[in-house]
Backbone:
């Protein structure tokens, strides 16, 4: 096993071949440790939040949780923490054995901070 990676007191990189003759080699410049993985040169880019309705049925009733308003940062920007609140306009709507519960996903307003105090990492309140 070690002969694949170690020779004459040094770690080496030998080419390995797959069954389909595709070459695979790990770049090595004499470092003591080289961490390398299959998608080493690929990067994740945040494309946005996806808010889908959540639906379930219980005892003949259909419950639907909807996000009617969603405020999110564009691009790969990490925004401030947001929370789910019952919608200001028509939070719960019931019609023929269907209950629709509307939510907003947004930042806290000054009034929200008074009504729902948020603890900081140091234990204080915002």
Residues:
């Amino acid at each position: 096993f070690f002969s694949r990676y170690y020779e004459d007191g040094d770690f080496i990189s030998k080419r390995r071949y797959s069954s389909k003759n595709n070459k695979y080699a790990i770049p090595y410049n004499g470092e003591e440790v080289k961490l390398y993985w299959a998608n080493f040169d690929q990067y994740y880019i945040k494309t946005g939040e996806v808010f889908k309705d959540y639906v379930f049925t219980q005892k003949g009733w259909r419950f639907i949780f909807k996000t009617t308003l969603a405020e999110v940062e564009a691009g790969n920007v990490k925004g401030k923490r947001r929370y789910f609140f019952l919608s200001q306009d028509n939070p719960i709507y019931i019609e023929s054995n269907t209950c629709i519960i509307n939510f907003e996903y947004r930042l806290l307003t000054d009034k929200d901070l008074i009504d729902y105090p948020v603890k900081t990492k140091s234990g204080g309140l915002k």
